[in-house]
Amino acid sequence: MLREVRFRDDKDFSGCSIFGMMNVRGERFNGEPMITAIANMKERSNGLGGGFAAYGIYPQYAELYCFHMMYDDRGAREETEEFFKSRFDVEGAEVIPTRPCEGVDDPPLLWRYFLRPRESLVCSEREADDFVVQAVMHINVRIEGAFVFSSGKNMGVFKGVGFPEDIGRFFRLEDYEGYTWVAHGRFPTNTQGWWGGAHPFNILDWSVVHNGEISSYGINRRYLEMFGYICTLHTDTEVIAYGVDLLLRKHGLTVEDMARVFAAPLWTEIDRMPPREREVHTALRQTYGSLLLNGPFSIIISNRSQMIGLTDRIRLRPLVAGRSGEFMYISSEEAPIHLVDDGLQETWIPQGGEPIIAELAEKMEEIETKGAEVISLPASDSA
Amino acid sequence: MIGRLEGLKSYLLPQFLIDRDDYRCIRCEVCARQCAFEVHWYDEEEDAVFADESKCVGCLRCATLCPTNALVVRHNPTQHPPNANWTREVLQNIYKQSETGGVLLTGMGCDTDYPIYWDRIVLDASQVTNPSIDPLREPMELRTYLGAKPDALKVGRKGGKPSLETRITPQLKLETPIMFSAISYGAISYNACESLARAAAEAGTYYNTGEGGLHRNLYKYGEHTICQVASGRFGVHADYLEVAAALEIKIGQGAKPGIGGHLPGEKVSAEISRTRMIPKGTDALSPAPHHDIYSIEDLAQLIYALKEATHWSKPVSVKIAAVHNSAAIASGMVRAGADIIVLDGIRGGTGAAPTMIRDNVGIPIELALAAVDDRLRQEGIRNRASIVVAGGIRSSADVVKAIALGADAVYIGTAALVALGCHVCQKCYTGKCNWGIATQDPYLSKRLNPEVGARRLVNLLRAWSHEIMEMLGGMGINAIESLRGNRLRLRGVGLTREELDILGIKHAGA
After folding, report:
1. How many interchain CB pairs under 8 A, A with B?
2. Which of B142, B386, B478, B490 to mutate to test the interface with A (most CBs of A within 10 A)?
């Protein structure tokens, strides 16, 4: 279905399943356990959207921005490729390999590009990131029928309309090896037919999968617009992704402080804090009140070195964390974690607003140069 | 040949008629004693109470206090010859002016039927996909901070703990996003001022002195007082600036954009003369403009002069009447350094204003608010100032809609006075307020007990706050900042495309 026939609701309304899995030593594994885990939460999706983000899948191009693209038609592809050529050195361009899969119909054109911002146009790495964000905004807003799935380095987003396990098979995720994976199954009540509306949502390295509905969406979006982020998708998830980019990359807050913005402690809690802490938390709420995410949500935010789980401050949506040796898990439910990992050491349920932060233990450079050996996971029934 | 016509029968019809049920009347003379307009009198010989209805203003003091409900005050049903153009109001105004040669005066806010957009906007609520929140069982936060906010925050680490590196400029902390509007001592009685001050302190919000200075006895409520600096500079001195929680430069007022104020000499008692620092019995005329502000850069100078004079310890607010170019003006005000901008709409109240000005100048607050919030966002400077709106906020629903359109907080003036007993008879300028509010007559003002007044106001704020919490909870929101500017939670009903565009909302059903 084309973008023109999307419903024009205020935003996306959906219930969902989310699952994240990270090897903290940066050892890579294929997408099989992700498909198994997300399929186990089938009740939480309705076949109208599923997707995956995988980190560490393109080690040979680790220095390049990888754009995963969807196009409604050839015209959109040609226009976008023109645009790429005008701003980037295109080091690689290919069709994303897929296989026919029952339950996945009418896919759009799916391409990926490995891009280097033209040197004459950008100086620093920071500038390059801004340059890429602007390029993403340009394509999403200006090029009819083109949409950027993901734009990070050594990572990619695979998503579409269907049950997530079918989408996973369609994209042949067993052929990819990454050290962090997140997955999403969707139960939308609108924006059904559009592949771009599926999760994860991504900008640069940041990906977000999200279960819930953000009641504060209207102001979150207007606030972000002041900083140049244009929300084209009308999904809550999009504002979270842009919010992450603003707070962490642009304003330099820590992940903990970001969690305090998205799921702020209550004033009554802040009033009881020691003076210096109180000052920080009061200032965070005063300054970033418009980015408070109100309403039920649980989210997994990921980048190349972190996987962060967070729920709304009164915990209206489920989230559970698990640990097993080198593996960290964040999930909507506990069962799928057990399903993919017999040796699970512990699981716990975080407080509302309390972030779970899984971080790579190793330096990024070492991970990026690591070989292609795959960690074999404990066998599971459906794998 | 100008002059009041004395001794001739007026062509004006009484606005109200008074029906007295003689069977119920016990001749207690409450009505006669309570009416400062001297409508009622008791005739001992006839043992009957009579009324001169031509003096009645319809304040309902007599009917309210009559112990046997013997009085009915009703609008005079006498009809002028039917005419859509030459209506009763138009004719009566002309009779009045031809008898006096004066400017038509009135009090309170504009009472004509411009569209009230609040009543054309409906709110959203959560169903299925998103749980509504019960404020009786879950936390619900209304706390609001007014003042400039930084665009970005720098948080450092000291000894592993976060520590703030950005300095936040002074803020006003409101426990509920409702403040009491600027109403001067002079326009209202000392007891009314004290009621407002005590209520603001108790409810954790602020009241505004208006342009009449601040009585020394009320300095103890300074932490909850916004002191106004207006074109007449009445009662402005170092202590006055020092004691306030915030300062407000009043450029304009919704009831009378473009003109100054006038407190007649009869109202300037010894106490008011001391507070305003003007001779007793003299008219207190505040000029139409500030004569040191003829341009935007002059405003910036006054803002910084006030900040400098108070050691940069308090936010400075600037209040304007909502007029055609409010958006551009507001943008200039923010860039001139205002921490808070106040917009006062066409329905804003007053103690006295020329009727023609009140009813014909300015624009509805809803449209001004939407336009200003949009403009400041488009310019990327919305964080640099809070927006407070005033002028016609009648209920908690109006407050919720105002905040969703983009306001940080609201001022209530008329609603607060109504809580104190005001019946909106619009005769504030006469100084004869039977409810003890808009008067300096000690016999009348003692009718308003500040302790009772404060309690009524606190009750009103508490009731509205509860209602706001219910509406927030219904939308699945548990903090007021998630409603602020969240126009997706609003829909218009029966509005034109253009009105919807200006308000930035969709039509219901869309």
Report:
1. 127
2. B478
Do the chains contact at B149 and A286, CB–CB below 8 Å? yes
Integer Cα distance of B176 and B173 in angstroms: 9
The residue of chain B nearest to residue A213, with distances taken between CA atoms, is B130
Q: Is B492 helix (H, G, I), strand (E, B) or coil?
A: strand
Residues of chain B with CATH 3.20.20.70: 144-507
The size of chain B, in residues, is: 510
> Would you state the structure tokens that stand for residue B138, as one six-digit string?
């879950």
Residue B27's SS3 state is coil
Angle in degrees, CA B132, B137, B140, rounded to 5 = 70
Please, where in chain B does CATH 3.30.70.20 lie?
16-102
CATH number of B144-507: 3.20.20.70
Hey, are the CB atoms on B476 and A294 less than 8 Å from each other? yes
Quick one: pLDDT at residue B2? 65
| CA A212, A218, A220, A225 torsion-angle sign | positive
Kindly give the parts of chain A with pLDDT less than 70.
Answer: 1-15, 189-193, 233-234, 362-383
What is the least distance, in Å, from the CA of A270 to any CA of chain B?
A: 12
> Which residue carries 């709420």 as its tokens?
A285
Helix (H, G, I), strand (E, B), or coil: what is residue B61?
helix
CA geometry: angle B105, B107, B110, nearest 5 deg: 100
User: A204 to chain B, minimum CA–CA distance in Å?
Assistant: 21
Q: Are A283 and B483 inside 8 Å of each other by CB? A: no
Residue ranges of domains in chain A: 13-364
Residue B152: list chain A partners with CB under 8 A.
250-251, 287
Question: What ipTM was predicted for this assembly?
Answer: 0.90
Cβ contact, residue pair B485, A225, below 8 Å? no
Residue A104 neighbours by CB under 8 Å, 6+ apart: A160, A161, A162, A166, A167, A170
Specify the CATH number for A13-364; select among 3.30.428.10, 3.40.640.10, 3.40.50.1220, 3.60.20.10.
Answer: 3.60.20.10
Question: Does domain B16-102 sit in CATH 3.40.50.1370?
Answer: no
Is A231 annotated in the active site?
no
Q: Which residues pair with B155 in a beta bridge?
A: B164
Residue A282: list chain B partners with CB under 8 A: 168
Q: Mind telling me how many Å the CA of A207 is from chain B's nearest CA? A: 22
Q: Give B248-299 pLDDT, tens digit per residue.
A: 999 999 999 999 988 888 889 999 999 999 999 999 899 999 999 999 999 9
What's the token pair of residue B159?
A: 């000894």
State pTM to two decimals. 0.91
Whether A226 and B145 lie within 8 Å, measured CB to CB: no
What is the Cα–Cα distance from B224 to A181, expressed in whole angstroms? 54
Q: B484–A219: do the CB atoms touch at under 8 Å?
A: yes
CA distance B249 to chain A (A): 24
Per residue in B469-488, pLDDT tens?
A: 999 999 999 999 999 999 99
- Nearest 5°: the CA angle B213, B312, B327 is 75
Question: Between chains, do A280 and B164 touch, taking CB under 8 Å as contact?
Answer: yes
Using CA atoms, how far apart are residues A354 and A313, in angstroms rounded to an integer?
Answer: 8
Distance (Å, whole) CA A94 – CA A68:
10
The catalytically annotated residue of A16, A66, A101, A231 is A16
Closest chain B residue by Cα to residue A188: B129
